[in-house]
Amino acid sequence: MQQLNRQEVRQRLVAYSLKATHQRIVVYEALLELHGQHPAAEEVFRLLKPANPSISLGTVYKTLDVFAESGLVQRVSSEQGCKRYDANTLAHNHIYCSNTREIIDFEDPELEELLQSYFQRRHMHNFQMQGFAIQLTGNKIDPGNRITITKL
Amino acid sequence: MQQLNRQEVRQRLVAYSLKATHQRIVVYEALLELHGQHPAAEEVFRLLKPANPSISLGTVYKTLDVFAESGLVQRVSSEQGCKRYDANTLAHNHIYCSNTREIIDFEDPELEELLQSYFQRRHMHNFQMQGFAIQLTGNKIDPGNRITITKL
DNA sequence: CTCCCTGCAAAATTTTTGCATCAAT
DNA sequence: ATTGATGCAAAAATTTTGCAGGGAG
């Protein structure tokens, strides 16, 4: 995720027709900082609170909801039973690790292209497709290390 | 989803090393009946309760959890922030409708095969892949009708 | 008979809501 | 100045837990 300064965050909020309040700015910055972790509201709040002692948990909930509705961030599917968010609206593919319960983004342009052309050859009746995503499930061997994918 | 009688449900529970209690049987039957709806615990409970007035909501929660841990049913990813379950452990592909908030199963053997062979040509470092799933997002045009997919 | 499952109710967790006040445009 | 966002606290919704009694193997 790219690094954004205050001014850029402001502009991005405005681009999504959102009032650029201080709380919204810091919530969005927290999401950027927690990039790759797909945090729930509570986790965003915990990160924010020390530097912004006056912010309230309710506001974080409301803000994340507004962000998701506006399309500024994505709600991420999870099996954990709580709402989780991602500032990266481009990467849609996720790896679920059943060991560590992590949700890990991955991008694979070749795979996207393969699916793109596959779905172009299908016709959906009564459905307007907006996008697709792939999820891999499995286990990290070494929980402390990263997962990498290479061609054979 | 295939129709199962009591005896077959019993056998299936036992096959997953689960004691075949009356509550487990009716919870599993409810999941079969709600096939395609990916219900949360509460919805399973509502369906069950009239015919089984003595069953408790807590038991439904525990039972669904036990089912998911044993592999008898799947937890289904959702963006709704509650745990949802599916008795169909074969179909992994889902369509999310942002209009109706439905999660709709779909199977597409050709697509599975395509992905299967794709992933066989990749190597995952530090990850043991167990399976993959595709999710389509979009909108049902007519909420009252089914979605169908055909080749062009 | 034994062990695990169940019902119940309380507690914990997560999320939403109402309202007076405050701040961004 | 206006409008909508915030903080706070209460309420609602969801999920977990502890324990005494009950039922399956």
SSE blueprint and pairings:
The structure is a homodimer of 152-residue chains.
Chain A: H1 6-15, H2 22-33, H3 41-48, H4 57-70, E1 74-76, E2 84-86, E3 93-97, E4 103-106, H5 109-120, E5 122-125, E6 127-140, E7 148-151
Parallel strand pairs in A: 3-6
Antiparallel strand pairs in A: 1-2, 3-4
Chain A binds a DNA duplex (25 and 25 nucleotides) through helix 2 and helix 4.
Overall description:
The structure is a homodimer. Chain A is globular and about 50 Å long. With about 150 residues, chain A is of the alpha+beta class. In chain A, helix 1 crosses helix 2, helix 2 (about 20-35) packs across helix 3 (about 40-50) and helix 3 (about 40-50) crosses helix 4 (about 55-70). Chain A has a three-stranded mixed beta sheet with strand order 4-3-6, with no helix packed on it. Chain A has a two-stranded antiparallel sheet with strand order 1-2. In chain A, strand 3 (about 95) and strand 4 form a beta hairpin. In chain A, about 35% of the residues lie in helices and about 25% in strands. The first copy, chain A, is built from five helices and seven strands, in the order H-H-H-H-E-E-E-E-H-E-E-E. The interface between A and B is large, with 47 and 47 residues. Strand 5 (about 120-125) of chain A pairs antiparallel with strand 7 (about 150) of chain B, so a sheet runs across the interface. The first copy, chain A, binds a DNA duplex (25 and 25 nucleotides) through helix 2 and helix 4.
